[in-house]
Specification:
heterodimer; A: alpha/beta; four-stranded antiparallel β-sheet; 26% strand; B: alpha+beta; 11 strands
Chain lengths: 243, 404
């Protein structure tokens, strides 16, 4: 699904060079749920940006679902992001002037889908995250947890193969964080590959695999360990939950 | 595709409408002013550009005034005309009573019967001699020119009736409708008959703001002194040199008179249209400034929106928007604001146009100008929004992952 080999990424200013990623290699198989952790400044965000095709890289190779991403045009990268990747951001990044329905609709419009198909996918995604009845609420009318669930609905509405979550629970309290993690696990169980970037070891433990980045390199790779039963106890996703 | 974009953009606009409403109002006012100003300018330009009927570029005038007690007007004007007509490059010269397009002249009213009843027909008349038609460069289309023996001597009292005169087509039509005017009789203010002996195609009279400027008559009379006014027509390209030589000669040829002005006829035409020209320049300047201010307003709103939505744009790029999608978003958003403005502005423009037409007896606003104004403001809006839109498209999608 995702194969990064010997990636390096250097940020240059007039005075200094910062090696954000150096000889970075990582493979994620289809259906994996991988947590990427590391201290501040370790290169997690750069990894996220490169993996999500939000930024390019200097050397190495990166294949996403069999597509070699090096040398792709800006339009081709946009198309690949739209079709293959669903993004979940720490600050939700919903568009405040659009209602929930239209927020989920944004990536589908960029895919030039027909209105009827879009409506069906939006309804289905909002139902999955338990917010079907709030389709015409504005983001400001929802709690943080609900907003993040809308963001998840937006990420999955296009049926991407790969979800990239950037500290998805970073702005949520523990109850809402559990709901969001349960949802991500549910989505993963439906076959979507998930890479979760977090600094929270508790969240990382809920992933199948853990990857730790230090100084722009993979320093630790831990295989899947079964979760403790208490951590996986599901939290209901009723429409009003977390409000 | 664009129509599909409109609903969410409109929905977002309506939630943050203050800036958009202000810019739309600015566009509306700009359209109302622009359309009416351009319409007024076009009317002024048309007015200035009306055909004069005369060979105006090759005509100059000379005025002199006798001041000495023994000044002999008849002898002096005969000598002056003789000298002027003898100059190489001079095609014709005449003594006249007035100067076309100068703002000063003489007017009489003609009546269909000797009883001198009713409104009558206004005529701006010029006393000329048998060289008058040639000097003015007007075209005789019916009848004949004056003979030398028909030219009446000087008569400050105007007691001598004018037996025959020449009229413009416009005056002929005002007097006799579509009938052939040659040979027809009309009556002056004293009830004396005047017979049309010739018709000239067209000639503008003295007053450029007069709605009957084309109702001109040429009368066969020697203008009386002691002031003398000559019109001189030259061969093309000779006028300015002849102005100089005429000034040099006539200023010394007769010590009992003073030479006042030697100027081209187009100097007077330009002077008469100065107010129209100034008005046109003022309106064009105001309109251009208003257009610039409107463009700046649109540019500022688009720039503000781009700056305000940096993260949103990054997010849109991250979830699949191409650069072209971002450009289109802002262009469509701007187009919606401009369109709201032009719709309001169109109503305003028609209202202003109607008020102007009633207040100043102007023709009603031509709808082509409204359509042109709408297109111009749409184009202005799109041009003004282009640079901010391009800048928005350059925002990196990685902005979406930055925590602020």
């Amino acid at each position: 699904m995702l194969a990064m080999r010997h990636i390096s990424k250097v940020f240059r200013t007039d005075l200094i060079e910062t090696h954000a990623l150096r000889d970075f290699s990582l493979e994620v198989a289809e259906g994996d749920f991988v947590a990427v952790t590391g201290p501040s400044g370790s290169g997690k965000t750069t990894f996220l940006n490169v993996a999500g095709l939000l930024e390019g890289f200097d050397t190495g190779s990166y294949q996403l679902d069999g597509v070699d991403t090096s040398g792709l045009s800006d339009d081709a990268r946009s198309r690949l992001r739209n079709e293959k990747i669903g993004f979940i951001f720490q600050s939700f990044n919903l568009i405040p002037d659009l209602d929930i329905f239209d927020n989920v609709d944004v990536p589908l419009r960029y895919r030039r889908m027909k209105a009827a198909d879009r409506r069906e996918r939006i309804t289905s995604a909002l139902d999955l995250v338990g917010l079907g009845s709030r389709a015409h609420h504005m983001p400001s009318q929802l709690s943080g947890g609900q907003q993040q669930r809308v963001a998840i609905a937006r990420a999955i509405a296009g049926d991407p193969k790969f979800l990239l979550a950037d500290e998805p629970t970073g702005n949520l309290d523990s109850l809402m964080a559990r709901q969001v993690m349960d949802l991500l696990e549910q989505i993963n169980e439906m076959g979507t590959t998930i890479v979760l970037v977090t600094h929270d070891p508790e969240l990382a433990r809920r992933a199948q695999r853990n990857v730790q980045i230090i100084d722009g390199q993979v320093s630790d790779y831990r295989p899947y360990e079964p979760h403790a039963p208490a951590a996986r106890e599901p939290v209901p996703l009723a429409a009003g939950a977390g409000a | 595709m664009i129509t599909q974009d409109i609903r969410p953009i409109l929905s977002a606009l309506l939630r943050n409408r203050t800036g958009a409403v202000l810019v739309a109002l600015q566009v509306a006012i700009a359209l109302a002013v622009l359309v009416n100003a351009v319409y007024v300018v076009k009317q002024r330009v048309d007015k200035i550009g009306r055909p004069t009927g005369m060979d105006i570029e090759n005509i100059f005038m000379v005025t002199s005034a006798g001041f000495a007690a023994d000044y002999d007007h008849a002898a002096t004007t005969a000598a002056d005309l003789s000298w002027l007509r003898s100059q190489p490059g001079v095609r014709a010269a005449t003594l006249t009573s007035g100067l076309p397009l100068s703002g000063g002249g003489s007017q009489n009213t003609l009546y269909p019967t000797p009883e001198v009843k009713g409104e009558g027909t206004s005529m701006n008349y010029f006393d000329v001699d048998e060289s008058g038609i040639d000097t003015l460069g007007v075209r005789l289309v019916a009848g004949r020119n004056f003979r030398a023996d028909e030219i009446l001597p000087e008569d400050p009292t105007y007691r001598k009736p004018v037996p025959g005169f020449i009229v413009t087509r416009t005056l002929a039509k005002a007097l006799f409708g579509t009938e052939d005017a040659v040979g027809k009789v009309t009556y002056d203010g004293l009830g004396r008959p005047m017979t049309v002996i010739g018709v000239i195609d067209h000639m503008q009279g003295s007053w450029v703001d007069w709605d009957k400027i084309g109702q001109v008559g040429l009368l066969p009379r020697r203008a009386f002194g002691p002031r003398a006014l000559y019109l001189v027509r030259t061969a093309p390209g000779q006028r300015d040199a002849l102005i100089k030589s005429a000034e040099e000669h006539l200023s010394v040829s007769e010590p009992r008179r003073v030479l006042q002005y030697v100027r081209s006829l187009d100097y007077y035409r330009d002077r008469s249209y100065q107010a129209d020209r100034n008005m046109a320049i003022f309106l064009v300047t105001v309109t251009a400034l208003l257009g610039c201010v409107t463009a700046l307003g649109i540019f500022a709103l688009a720039t503000f929106n781009v700056n305000l939505r940096t993260r949103q744009i990054g997010t849109r790029r991250a979830i699949g928007a191409r650069k072209a999608d971002i450009v289109r978003y802002f262009m469509v958003e701007n187009w919606l604001v401009t369109t709201a403005g032009v719709l309001l502005g169109a109503a305003l423009a028609l209202g202003v146009g109607y008020s102007l037409s009633r207040a100043y007896q102007l023709p009603r606003l031509d709808l082509y100008y409204l359509v042109g104004g709408v297109v111009a403001l749409w184009a202005t809006g799109q041009v003004a929004a282009w640079q901010p839109s391009r800048r928005a498209a350059k925002i990196s999608p990685s902005v979406a992952t930055r925590t602020v």
